[in-house]
Amino acid sequence: MSSAAAWMEPSLDVDKLSYEIFSILESKFLFGYDDHKVFLSSTPATPVAAGLRHSSAGKVRILSIDAADGILAGAALVRLEATLRKQSGDPTARVSDFFDLAAGSGAGGVLAALLFTRGPDGRPLFSAAEALRLLAKHRRRLASGTQRKGLLGGILCRSGGLLRRVFGDATLRDTLKPVLIPCYDLSTGAPFVFSRADAVEADGYDFLMEEVCAATCADAAAGAAAVEMRSVDGRTRIRAVGGGLAMGNPTAAAITHVLNNRLEFPVATGVEDLLVVSLGGAEAPAAPGKPAAPLSAEALSRIAGGAQADVVDQAVAMAFGEKRATNYVRIQGYKAAPGTTAAEETLTERGVESVLFRGRKLSELTNGEKLEMFAAELIKEQDRRQRNAAPTVVIKPSMTPARSSSSTFTTMASTVTSASL
């Protein structure tokens, strides 16, 4: 009996050892990073030395947004931006001011593009509230039906669509910070990630932002056609379907990009050097007592995408180990109905967290409280950088001038506040 009880209730030492072991394994195989020493807190000579190293080097801040409908993520970003403004004392602060890299898939990729594309004044084109209003209004318009199915289908039409009017001739090079936006390329039969880091290196990897958004949102399971697109120099051709098929939760890809990109992120040696905010979607509740029926291809695709996002979340959480509580936060909605109001209500609910070897449990904090606590960490890192001359992030400069004219950007900005939205 005693041995059985010991097995059922592992000691804290066993839990700690398990976290360390799985942190090494997940970090090596998930993030492609081989040096196991950087993931063990006992590697430095003393805990004090470890604290000094991390406090002086700083942390890289990552924002990741799932390929969900974008409404819950948008509401979370509105809450986060409002908290950052209040805690920093800067009423003009934007989400992009407090992150070093943004990754987004599907509607999450559109949100990342809206929040991180440079405007005519050098600031982001959209605030979080403006981006959410854009998505929410066109979500209601799409409810009456459109030729291209899905949340963003109607505004991604290639001729005169809203996002073309919003982004104009802006390309990946016109983003304020590094961005990663995935799709699936039918031409090569493999995932493709649009990356600012690649775009500034070669025209062959630079694409119009409007087409990047169309590519990551092309929901083949919902009947959307593949997006035929070319790079700005015409050399790279892609036949894209949505990022949700290839990478519904881009958090792992974002972490891998940072840990293996020493040119732009020289201080990131392990997950303890990261601050990661991962925003998921809202799972629709199952109707009680409803008889079983054959699932459509679209339903199966959404189930597979949701399961993949959860697997990535659990793997990333395990890779962070004991740092999961301070360096990684996941916002995921459960039992949520669609719509902005429901998304805001989800922020007042407690989410579900994965626990190593113990399934899932309710979080002690609400989703909104998690965001507020993490905002304090983001501001703390911002303040540290203002006091420390050593750079934490070195963003590659674009070697060619921006292609978007100031008049085009002026049109973008006015589009946001116009009644036509």
Automatic annotation (TrEMBL):
Location of the region described as Disordered in the Swiss-Prot/TrEMBL record: 399-421
Positions with biased composition (Low complexity): 402-421
EC class (word): hydrolase
A single BP term in Gene Ontology: lipid catabolic process
Any one GO molecular function term: hydrolase activity
Keywords: Hydrolase, Lipid degradation, Lipid metabolism
Database matches in SUPFAM superfamilies: FabD/lysophospholipase-like
Enzyme Commission code(s) on record: 3.1.1.-
Annotated InterPro entries: Acyl_Trfase/lysoPLipase (IPR016035), PNPLA_dom (IPR002641)
All residue ranges annotated as the PNPLA domain in the record: 61-255
Domain of life: Eukaryota
CDD domains: Pat17_PNPLA8_PNPLA9_like
PANTHER family per UniProt: OS03G0784100 PROTEIN, PATATIN-LIKE PROTEIN 6
Recorded domain comment: The nitrogen atoms of the two glycine residues in the GGXR motif define the oxyanion hole, and stabilize the oxyanion that forms during the nucleophilic attack by the catalytic serine during substrate cleavage.
Family as reported in the entry's similarity comment: Belongs to the patatin family.
Functional note: Lipolytic acyl hydrolase (LAH).
Protein name stated in the entry: Patatin
